[in-house]
Structures are given as C-alpha cells and as structure tokens.
Amino acid sequence: MKKRPTINDIAQQAGVSKRTVSRVINGATNVNAKTRENIQQIIREQGFSPDKKARGLAVRRSYLLGIIYDNPGTFYIDQVQEGVLQVITEKGYELIVHPCRYQDAGFVDNCTGFVHRSNVDGVIVLPPVSESAALADAFNRHGVNYVRMASVALDEPYRMVISDDRHAVADLALYLVAQGHKDIAVISGPNAYSSTTERLEGFCHALHTLGITLSANRIIEGDNTYQSGIACGRALLTQDPIPDAIFANNDDMAIGVIRAAHDLKINVPQSLSVVGFDDNLMAARMLPSLTTIRRPVRDMAASAAQKLIAQIENLPADNIATQLVKAQLIVRESTRKKSDFS
C-alpha cells in the first residue's frame, strides 16, 4: 500500500518549512503567490489531505461552521447550504445546521448552547432569527464569531449580508402601476419582523411617489404561511370591489391568495394579479406560475460564509466590507395588464 503523504513530505518536496505549508492549507494571505501555487500543485499531485483532527488542534479550531434558522422553506435552506458549501468545502470546513424556535422564551440559551456543544468556529444566522438583538448580544458576550443575513443593517458591516428588499419592492410597485393597476392590496408579514417593515414601507412609499396611496382596509397582516395567505386573501377578495392586484409578503402567502381566489371563482390573472416574494420552489411550478421577487440566496449565503471565515482567520477588515445584495423582479403568469382583465 502506498504511504499516505504527510505535511512534512509536502514541505520537503516544496523546499519550504512545514509552517509555510500549514499557512497555505489554512488559506493564510502571508505567503508568496509563486510559493503558494507550487505548494498547492504538489498537494494535488500527491493527493495530500490534512488530518482534520490534528489540524484543528494545531490552530485551536474545530473546522465546523453552523447555520441557525427557524423553520424556513425547504428550498430556502437548501439554497443557503449550497451557497455556504461552495465556499467552505475547499477551505476544509464542514457544516452543521441547527433549527430553533425564534418565538420561544429560551431560544437565546438554546442557540448559545448549540454553539458550545458543537464547538463550531462560528455561525451564520438566518432571518428572522438574525433580527434578534438579544442573540447577537449573547454571541458577543461569549466571543462567538457570527454573520447575520437580513433585509436591513442590524450590526457591524463585517457581520452582515443584506438583501435590498426596499429597492426590489419599488421595482414591483413601478411594474404593477405600469400594468394599469391602481387599486392594490398588500398582505404583510408579521409586524415584528424587520423584513416586513422594509417591504411594506418600501412598497407603500414607491406607490406614493407614483400618486397612489393604499387605503387601510387594503393592508392586512399575515404570518407568512400558506394558510394565512388563504385567510387574508379571502378577506381581501370578499371586499367590494375586489382589488386589481395583491402583493403578498412571501410566496407561500401569495400561493394561498391564488387558492382563495380559486375557491371564490376569481380567475388569476384574468380578474386579479397576484405577486409574491422569495421565488421559492413552487413559484415557477404552479399554475399560473407566480410573479415574484427573487433573492439571490445562494450568493448571500456564500458571502456570509466568506465573511465568517474572514472573522475566524483574522483577515483584514477591508476584505469583509458590507455586502448589499440586489433582489430581482421575476414576471410570470400570475399578473397581467389591467386593460386585459375580463
């Protein structure tokens, strides 16, 4: 059996110290580019794979990263994991996911307990958990490396990846008005969430600049579930007259609205335009397919992973500046011009 190459073998063949090889393996920046390329070539040729346990002991790391979340859609969490893994795998890190209950009284202790039990080097926190100031304070007190994904700046730039929801919903408002819609309704998310505020305020402000003000009875608070979309959709669609268009805070509720319209024999999009937010797995597969706003979740997660590793490996601050990610309006079959309404 061929002897497994060691870090000493790589160092000897490259004509450098074991410390230099270790720096290259760990992604340190203080190695000459030519030397780094030579070492990486030898590592590939020799099929060298560092022992993770020994590597972790040497640098006092576990090479484990965590994701903390509260019941997102399966498609969303899959996208997050794909984005994180595309960054961390080549750097030798592995991933652990931890679900929690954001509304539970003991959720902060639950999350800090996870960090200590699993011995992760840092965590990426997804919305709405990422909006918790109490959790961020606890992580700071315990010296935990973390990055928050959110729709608004809640922390220092090196700890944030932000989805520009306000700009996206402004594009949506412009699109709906350009389609001839003036009587527009909104199903917001829970008022306690920053993402709800960003989307609702951004949408209403953009409409106001276009000369449209929403009446109070055209705005209903939902809870971001499919069932809530059905209930809120029914409440709006039993008003007289019904709205021209409904913007729901997420795709699950928008799909619920389409179901409520079907039950009330209101045709989408012939008599009602419906728009969501997120572009989840069902948005493109349902009939009619859903006009929605797509957040580049994989890119956001990849940026979060880069920021987190930068914290762990003490990279310079200029490598981890604020990341603002633009969401995109995706037009499909659930909307049409007002003039085409039956």
Describe the structure.
By secondary structure, the protein is of the alpha/beta class. It has three domains: 53 residues, 434 Repressor (Amino-terminal Domain) (Orthogonal Bundle); 130 residues, 3-Layer(aba) Sandwich (Rossmann fold), CATH 3.40.50.2300; 143 residues, Rossmann fold. 42% of the residues lie in helices and 15% in strands. Strands 2-1-3-4-5-11 form a six-stranded parallel sheet, with helices on both faces. Strands 7-6-8-9 form a four-stranded parallel sheet, with helices on both faces. A two-stranded antiparallel ribbon has the order 10-12. β8, α11 and β9 form a beta-alpha-beta unit. The radius of gyration is 24 Å and the shape is elongated. The chain starts with 6 loop residues before the first helix and ends in a 12-residue tail after the last strand.
Tally of DSSP helical segments: 12
CATH topology of the largest domain: Rossmann fold
Q: How is the largest sheet built, in terms of strand order? A: 2-1-3-4-5-11
- From the N-terminal CA to the C-terminal CA, the straight-line distance is 76 Å
The name of the CATH superfamily of the largest domain reads Response regulator
Strand tally is: 12
CA-atom Rg in angstroms: 24 Å
- Helix/strand structural class: alpha/beta
Tell me, briefly, the overall form: elongated
Q: Residue-averaged pLDDT, rounded?
A: 90
Q: How can the largest sheet be summarized?
A: 6 strands, parallel
CATH architect. name of the largest domain: 3-Layer(aba) Sandwich
Q: What is the element string, with H for helices and E for strands?
A: HHHHEHEHEHEEHEHEHEHEEHEE
Poorly predicted runs are: none
* Total count of domains: 3
**Tell me, what is the CATH class of the largest domain?**
Alpha Beta
Assembly category: single chain
The helix content, as a percent range, equals 40-55%
What percent strand?
5-15%
